[in-house]
Structure prediction request, 210 residues.
Amino acid sequence: MKYSPLIAILRGITPDKILDVGEILIDNGINIIEVPLNSPNPLKSIQLLVDKYSDNALLGAGTVLKISEVHDVYNIGAKLIVSPNTDYDVIQKTKKLKMVSMPGFFTTSEALTGLNAGADALKLFPASTIGPNTFNAINQVLPKNTKCFAVGGINSENMKEWVEYKITGFGIGSNIYNPKMSLYEIKNKVEDFMKIYQNIFGKDLKKISL
Prediction:
């Protein structure tokens, strides 16, 4: 399956809203969805997504810090493991279970550790602290075609600069979702974001495989 290079981060989502929000995202072309494990009843939300949308999207958990959590996510049929850190054992377990591994990194050493452990892609976090110029310097020493997603502080004003420095894609959280929003507000936020995204990039950010 090919994916748009955008990860929807639904921190704080609850099971009663997950399917409606998932439908909004997928209908608007966002087909990588992460439910952080520090959300209320996250495994239930992920399970509901998997049951309905596993054929249409890459679904899984964020803020995964332990091997036991990898197993929990695997057991409900999800395929994506995203972490804020670079934990060799978590990455190795994720790949042993044939899931998609996306650990977080902040330094060149962490990025290379993640790749050596078998990560499929990397999550630069918090991206706003590093910025596109520093990412560009780090990217010079990473293996060619390494997939990197910028997460944290990404908005319509800085996305284009990140792409100029060869970022693969973005993790988007509060710009499109927070638990206090109504479904109407979420729908408008997602649609507005996608219009801006398409106006800036057109087809520059091509769909990817993971």
Summary: The longest strand covers residues 32-36. Helices lie at 15-27, 42-53, 67-75, 88-96, 108-117, 127-139, 159-164, 183-201.
